[in-house]
Design a protein that fits this description.
The chain has a nine-stranded mixed sheet, sandwiched between helices. The protein is an alpha/beta fold. The chain folds into two domains: 189 residues, Alpha/Beta hydrolase fold, catalytic domain (Rossmann fold, 3-Layer(aba) Sandwich); 270 residues, 3-Layer(aba) Sandwich (Rossmann fold), CATH 3.40.50. It is 37% helix and 20% strand.
């Protein structure tokens, strides 16, 4: 499979276009909103790969104002960007277009599809109003009531102002005469407002969407069902296609620019952010996202942080490790590399390819990315910032084992639940704490010692839940022992996942301040 990456339009939309040599039709794969889009990223890549194998072109994209695309405050950017993606496909010579929308993206797809376009809605919400109401309730439970800052309301993985919230809430389905299908969970109805459309039940939507990104599983059978429907809808005779004209560089604001890169022996996908006023000896900051998620970060915080750091004078790279985002081949049964040696190898390969002296290198990681940054002992970076660290193991895990463990804990079998209940009842709390510490070999002291011995400054930014673990696993002792080289920043109103605006603001400010203080000559 070959994918063309770049930007298109104004404000520019980041696109990934997959073109067979001759195409029978084209599909606009609309990204779901917020955290749904993060969770579904690899699933939608697999969908595009399978479409290409059937001779169907596709475009995946980040709408302007979101993800890797250009800034945009237009409240209609979601639907407008979907329409631009369709126009880009048509510019290749493809005539017949279908829109595919998973979960919240079903609303955007329905709003963008023309009278002659096919429409696939997959696990669709009943309406824009219903989706917005559900997201607000979930965000209040997850983040708390203080979700509006500077006029922006934080939902789960997306910030919206009042105008955009009104636009999204007002999106409604309308009756369609063009080919339309609704893929739904068992017993769920198709959106009534679409009219009498084809309804197909599929499995796996809950396993993908109703879990954290750690738990999510690619619904292989559902992807195949969507591809089969589109394969039947597409014309039999393919037509030659031509490559679209894409921008290789995104001009963010006249000063900061971005480009896509492939780096290291695994050809990992990344976005490099630089400033036109950058010093030739500027520091390089490598950003690692959390969990098995791609390069943008919760509510696009890594994008905003990278652009902030570039304005400050740094060179910044956001990378997709193997098994995330655009890196490595997607497989329905793929195993993630959480806390695994493969990600350590990826980090080493990226640092080698950057060819930056250690004294000009900073690593910034969140959650699993924090653990990974802490493994960069041989690279000896000048600065390591660990955001929301929650694991201090020294021995890497086997691929997929961490996710398997989390699933077993959160959804235990009856036998495991029986054992856990008796373990918690009869094993003293102090002993359980020691066992938990043993599982994270060495605790905080063992985690930071190799970095400190190589001259690295280590900063840990923690919300209350991670602060409790940090303290329990010897964090205060580490700070006391290496005062001035190990520091912890506590964010009392923060959260582990960085969904809360307070936590994201604290992280952005802290990282910028630490980079500026560590590399004062060129920032």
């Amino acid at each position: 499979m070959s994918t063309l990456h770049g930007w298109s339009g104004s404000p520019a939309v980041r696109v990934a276009v997959q073109l067979p040599p001759a195409a029978r039709a084209g599909v606009v794969v609309v990204p779901p909103l917020g955290q749904e889009g993060v969770i579904a990223y690899r699933t939608l890549r697999l969908l595009a790969d399978r479409l290409e194998a059937r001779g169907v072109a596709s475009v995946r994209y980040d709408p302007s104002g979101r993800g890797d695309s250009a800034p945009d405050t237009d409240p209609h950017a979601q639907v407008r960007s979907a329409g631009h993606a369709a126009a880009l496909l048509r510019s290749t010579g493809v005539e017949r277009i279908a829109f595919v929308g998973l979960a919240s993206a079903a609303l955007i797809a329905a709003g963008a599809a023309g009278d002659g376009d096919a429409l696939v809605v997959w696990d669709p919400p009943a309406s824009g109003r219903a989706w917005l109401r559900g997201q607000r309730a979930l965000a209040t439970m997850t983040i708390g009531p203080d979700r509006v800052v500077d006029g922006y309301e934080t939902l789960v993985g997306i910030d919206v102002d009042a105008a955009e919230a009104d636009v999204l809430g007002a999106i409604a389905y309308t009756p369609r005469s063009a080919p339309t299908v609704s893929f739904v969970r068992e017993g769920a109805p198709a959106p009534r407002a679409l009219g009498p459309v084809e309804r197909i039940e599929v499995t796996g939507s809950a396993e993908l969407l109703d879990r954290t990104s750690m738990h999510a599983r690619i619904p292989d059978a559902a992807v195949d069902a969507v591809v089969s429907w589109l394969d039947t809808w597409a014309p039999v005779a393919p037509v030659p296609v031509r490559q679209p004209v894409l921008q290789e560089v995104l001009d963010v604001d006249g000063r900061v620019s971005e480009r896509t890169v492939r780096i290291g022996p695994e050809a990992l996908f990344g976005i490099e952010t630089v400033s036109s006023a950058q010093h030739h000896d500027a520091p390089t900051v490598l950003l690692h996202n959390g969990s098995a998620e791609h390069r943008v970060g919760a509510t696009d915080y890594q994008v905003a942080l990278a652009r902030d750091l570039a304005r400050d004078g740094a060179r910044v790279l956001r990378i997709d490790r193997r098994g995330t985002g655009e890196s490595s081949v997607v497989r329905a049964d793929e195993r993630d590399f959480m806390f695994a040696q493969e990600w350590i190898d990826d980090q080493s390969a990226v640092v080698d390819a950057l060819d930056v002296p250690p004294e000009r290198l900073a690593l910034v990681g969140m959650c699993a990315g924090a653990w990974l940054a802490g493994r960069a002992v041989e690279e000896a970076p000048r600065l390591v910032v660990e955001i929301s660290p929650n694991d201090y193991r020294r021995t890497p895990a086997a691929p997929g084992s961490y996710a398997d463990h989390v699933r077993a804990v959160d959804a235990p079998s009856p036998r495991r639940a029986w054992v856990r209940e008796r373990y918690n009842r009869y094993v003293p709390e102090r002993l359980r704490a020691r066992i938990a510490r043993r599982d994270r070999v060495g605790g905080v002291v063992g985690h930071v010692r190799p970095l400190v011995q190589h001259g690295t400054e280590v900063v840990l930014v923690v919300a209350p839940e991670d602060a409790e673990l940090f303290d329990r696993l010897g964090g205060r002792r580490a700070v006391k022992r290496w005062s001035g080289q190990v520091d912890v920043v506590r964010v009392p109103e923060g959260d582990h996942a960085l969904f809360s605006p307070a936590m994201r603001a604290a992280v952005r400010a802290e990282v910028r301040a630490r980079v500026a203080a560590t590399f004062p000559a060129h920032v």
